[in-house]
TrEMBL record:
Classification via InterPro entries: PsdUridine_synth_cat_dom_sf, PsdUridine_synth_RluA-like_CS, PsdUridine_synth_RluC/D, PsdUridine_synth_RsuA/RluA, RluA_PseudoU_synthase
Function: Responsible for synthesis of pseudouridine from uracil.
GO biological process, one term: enzyme-directed rRNA pseudouridine synthesis
Claim: Nucleotidyltransferase is one of the keywords in the record: no
GO molecular function terms noted in the UniProt entry: catalytic activity, acting on RNA; pseudouridine synthase activity; RNA binding
Name of this chain's protein: Pseudouridine synthase
């Protein structure tokens, strides 16, 4: 295999980190992911004062810690040609508009025809080898913004934003019923979410589950349905769908947590925008995805019938 062209990332250890294990320094100060720490130590590419060291090596104030920055040599998934709707791209990140009926990345027995496969094909067509690094996921039938990092150090910074709740994801949903603000006047649903025993892909409102908070704003009531704007304080699997079902207003067309609809052939849920700090410049970035045609048509049909 051709050897990667790479460079060193160097830090001078502050006195307050003295007597720390170098692996802990990489994790807490240099923000190196677990996967990359393992790779660096296995390949002997962690250095203290110019010498390769093992993970438990103690460091002291004034030491120089350096790690090898590897260039990507694999996409991580099989590249395929398919639809890639680029909403935003620069040298650090790319945001795609995911269509319905598509997984974000391979999982289980599905290893092809996902958004990740098609993004790898997009990079390959441009003559670039970039490992596919999605920062978050959307359900198969949820549309909209998905953010990918182009380098591991950018992934680490963006993951930290997710964890600190400084990355904001905004959704549109058509839900069944009216009067949700009468039941939740502060536009906030707080209810723990847990797994359904024996059903690995299904979640439920569960006091013993993980804490989950969803915020929403009423956009419009259309006949017996309501268009909402929602944003997540936490990021649990199926969070919006579970919380809307818990609130008595399941997402229209949600076959798992509600009932199928003749108006739309999937859950009427769309990741309309994502806001984050750029991992290089630190500037605020907001990317939006237009509402998909099937949700637009659903609103038009409801409006025409109930006007």
């Amino acid at each position: 295999m051709k050897k990667n062209q790479n460079s060193l990332k160097k830090y001078i250890v502050a006195d307050k980190y003295g007597d720390m294990a170098v692996e802990d320094y990489l994790k807490s100060v240099m923000k190196v992911s677990s996967r990359n720490r393992q790779r660096l130590f296995r390949s002997k590419n962690v250095f203290v004062n110019g010498r390769s060291v093992h993970s438990k090596q103690r460091i002291k104030g004034g030491d120089m810690v350096a790690i090898r920055l590897f260039a990507d040599d694999t996409f991580g998934v099989k590249p395929q040609i398919g639809p890639v709707d680029v909403l935003y791209e620069d040298d650090a990140v790319i945001v795609l508009n995911k269509p319905a009926n598509m997984l974000v990345h391979p999982t289980g027995q599905t290893d092809s025809f996902t958004l990740a496969n098609f993004l790898a094909g997009y990079f390959q067509d441009k003559g670039q080898t970039i490992t596919i690094r999605p920062l978050h996921r959307l359900d198969r039938d949820t549309t909209g913004c998905v953010l990918f990092a182009k380098k591991p150090e950018y992934q680490t910074k963006l993951e930290a934003q997710l964890k600190a709740n400084t990355m904001h994801r905004i959704y549109n949903a058509i839900v069944t019923g009216k009067g949700i603000l009468e039941e939740y006047p502060d536009g906030r649903i707080e209810k723990n979410i847990g797994k359904v025993p024996g059903m690995s892909n299904r979640r439920r409102a569960d006091d013993k589950g993980q804490p989950a908070v969803t915020h929403f704003k009423l956009v419009e009531e259309i006949g017996p349905n309501t268009l909402l704007e929602l944003w997540l304080e936490t990021g649990r699997t199926h969070q919006i769908r579970v919380h809307m079902d818990f609130a008595g207003h399941p997402v229209l067309g949600d076959k798992m947590y509600g009932t199928p609809s003749r108006l739309i052939n999937r859950q009427a849920l769309h990741a309309a925008a994502i806001q984050f700090k750029h991992p290089v410049t630190g500037e605020n970035v907001e990317v939006t995805a237009p509402m998909p045609m099937d949700m637009q048509e659903c609103i038009e049909k409801l409006t025409a019938f109930w006007d």
